[in-house]
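User: Let's play a game. I give you a shape written as tokens, and you guess the letters that built it. Ready? Here's round one.
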């Protein structure tokens, strides 16, 4: 006799390459105490079980649209080291539309949680990309700072803000993927140029930033850092480091010195 057991899952996570905007299909390591995560053939990571939520997984008929939730933390690592380690905060179970009230995609149980992965320094790069290898170091020493959030805003219409993190050596890979090969040069005289300015900003959250001389490095949660900046948290410091010229197909290096702590 075959016994059929129906169980509900808590949703799925879709990891996206921040540069190519495509799904990451290579295996990743997900560390989540109390959560069973399974990777399916399509590259989604299914949240199958959560400790203490067995009743929810068995509520197949008439499931509650908005059950009580708890906050869980997941740590993501790439065994191939193409992406930087990252921490993700999730509120589970996710919600369903009950007919009277809609649910945003960020909370919708029927849609995957989209997580963008930050490329590491060893990520293969396309020749047409504009690339900056930025090192953030402590003033007066060669010691780098890990887990500094780097924001790069191109001064060109249509090019979005890019974000990256420094690795354990204090180096960040900043890439503008869709930079035009030539741009009009304001005259006189009129002409063409390959260069365009990008405004760089460093966001340093003391809860995760560590000197490169440390032996342990926490995985940063980008969403949490941005929220703490918005809230004006005392442990978050924002440093505007000025403009850097980029150009398509060109690799540049730069070092920014900051005071720490």
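Assistant: Ready! My guess for every position:
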């Amino acid at each position: 006799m075959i016994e059929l057991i129906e169980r509900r899952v808590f949703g799925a996570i879709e990891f996206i390459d921040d540069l190519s905007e495509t799904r990451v299909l290579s295996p990743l390591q997900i560390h989540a105490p109390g959560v069973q995560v399974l990777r399916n053939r399509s590259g989604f990571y299914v949240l199958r079980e959560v400790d203490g939520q067995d009743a929810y997984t068995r509520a197949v008929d008439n499931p509650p649209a908005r059950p009580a939730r708890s906050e869980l933390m997941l740590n993501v690592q790439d065994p191939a080291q193409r992406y930087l380690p990252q921490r993700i905060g999730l509120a589970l179970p996710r919600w369903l539309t009950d007919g009277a009230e809609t649910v945003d995609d960020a909370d919708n149980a029927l849609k995957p949680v989209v997580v963008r992965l930050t490329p590491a320094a060893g990520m293969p790069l396309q020749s047409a990309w504009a690339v900056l290898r930025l090192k953030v170091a402590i003033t007066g020493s060669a010691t780098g700072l890990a887990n500094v959030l780097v924001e790069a805003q191109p001064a060109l219409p249509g090019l979005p803000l890019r974000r990256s993190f420094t690795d354990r050596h204090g180096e960040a890979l900043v890439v503008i993927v869709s930079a035009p090969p030539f741009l009009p040069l304001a005259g006189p005289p009129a002409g063409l140029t390959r260069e365009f300015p990008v405004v760089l900003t460093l966001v340093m959250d003391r809860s995760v930033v560590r000197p490169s001389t440390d032996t342990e490095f926490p995985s940063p949660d980008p969403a949490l850092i941005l929220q703490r900046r918005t809230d004006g948290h005392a442990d978050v410091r924002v440093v505007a480091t000025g403009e850097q010229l980029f150009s398509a197909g060109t690799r540049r290096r730069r070092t920014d010195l900051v005071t720490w702590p």
